[in-house]
Amino acid sequence: MAKISLGVKPAIFPSPVLLIGTYNDDGSVDVMTVAWAGMAASDLTEVYILENHRTTENIRKRKAFTLAIATVETMAQSDYFGIVSGAKDPQKFEKSGFHAVKSEYVDAPVIEEYPLTIECELEEETSAPEEARILGKIKNVLVDEKMLGDNGKMDVSKLHAIVWDNFQAGYYAVGEKVGQSFVEGKKISSLNKLADWSEDADKKEDTSSACSSACGAATLEEEKKEAPSACGSACGAAN
Amino acid sequence: MAKISLGVKPAIFPSPVLLIGTYNDDGSVDVMTVAWAGMAASDLTEVYILENHRTTENIRKRKAFTLAIATVETMAQSDYFGIVSGAKDPQKFEKSGFHAVKSEYVDAPVIEEYPLTIECELEEETSAPEEARILGKIKNVLVDEKMLGDNGKMDVSKLHAIVWDNFQAGYYAVGEKVGQSFVEGKKISSLNKLADWSEDADKKEDTSSACSSACGAATLEEEKKEAPSACGSACGAAN
Ligand SMILES: Cc1cc2nc3c(=O)[nH]c(=O)nc-3n(C[C@H](O)[C@H](O)[C@H](O)COP(=O)(O)O)c2cc1C
Ligand SMILES: Cc1cc2nc3c(=O)[nH]c(=O)nc-3n(C[C@H](O)[C@H](O)[C@H](O)COP(=O)(O)O)c2cc1C
User: Fold this and answer.
1) Does B217 score more than 50 pLDDT?
2) Residue-level pLDDT at A224
3) Ligand 1 pocket: which of A25, A26, A36, A53 to mutate (most atoms <8 Å of CB)?
4) DSSP code of B152?
5) Interface contact flag, B38 A37, Cβ < 8 Å
6) ipTM of this model?
7) How far apart are the first and last CA of chain A?
């Protein structure tokens, strides 16, 4: 396969599409779209935002914000929140037609129309080369009841989340579940007839999701505490 | 809609699924899966990785790594790279059946089977509460020729990227393009008959993608330099 060099580009795909909810000085609501964002620890969110956004000012003042996940159903509004600035149009939020209530956990609004909202307190602000790097301490996660699966856990396939691409600035829908982590990889090792970890795991099928949540998220200590022993080496933690 | 509190959870959705490629001491290849990762600036990637991974050691020694994007076609191997540690199995990479060549830009391997690879030099390591925070300076982006669209730009819908969820540790395929940023939001403002920026933009349809790339990625200075004047306020930068 011929490979082509594209030079220096922001090329991670995809970026999530999140909405930051904050309060303005007068208690009215502002919402802005952010794509450069992610998890920084099990209870820490991270967003990179330009100095001059109204949102940045609001976060500094109230020390709190919410993060909602953009969906196919809310795409037009979610994009609109990324075009208009609350600094220019004081009625930005009102004009979206969406509704907000105060978070019970932090001094920031929960936008009712989004099915999943993360309620954060400002943990730390540092400066990144281009933007402010904001870390939020998660105080609670609020979801629409109908987003839960039969097992009582959040079922993200019900969200209809959209993601963003840094090359052509398009929105894409996240589709169906295609696999389970810490399960798919076993095919490789059995194909290649190797590794005792996979034989162990075969005997204990149910451990896979406990393994992966212990792994993807955890500190070494938590990993050891939370992970069933069958996945002791699954995260490479015991190695 | 009744909302349910889930407590404190890593709830951003989705996380990307990336593969970090590094060289071991003996010049053999290691690859590991990472989901807590994203863009930190136009030319900076960021990954959060546990201290005890072989990959973390390799990055410190060679000051370089590559990041490839996991796809539906490479799901089994991409998961496998996240289960087995190179510290435990020196033949980890070989057993995947994948192939590597040396990057022309950095001291790290490019895995041939992945359609998009970001070649990075170690820019900075800082410590996060749970993991090491690694910033990579992008030196080049390498893509399979057939991933380019008719306009010569990377067409991410050809990638078949997969993403990961922090709640149930599943993999999900990213589907079709459903919209264009800085275009969808106009529906709201025209519905509500407002804002001169949207009337301006209507007259100059072609500016939308230039607007959005200037906005999502850029510093204020770059934004002003790169953005056509019709989208001066699109990023909230001019406000
Ligand atoms: C898809 C999309 C992604 C965006 N991502 C970011 C981002 O990561 N960081 C940022 O500072 N601005 C980003 N923006 C731009 C802001 O959302 C926009 O400038 C907004 O008008 C700021 O609103 P405010 O001034 O009311 O806070 C994005 C916009 C869109 C449409
Ligand atoms: C879907 C998935 C996501 C993962 N995300 C991370 C991550 O964000 N950070 C991390 O330190 N480990 C993560 N891991 C675990 C490592 O990939 C795994 O421990 C690997 O075996 C380390 O390999 P190494 O020791 O050869 O470097 C993830 C694994 C999977 C399957």
Assistant:
1) no
2) 34
3) A53
4) S
5) yes
6) 0.87
7) 35
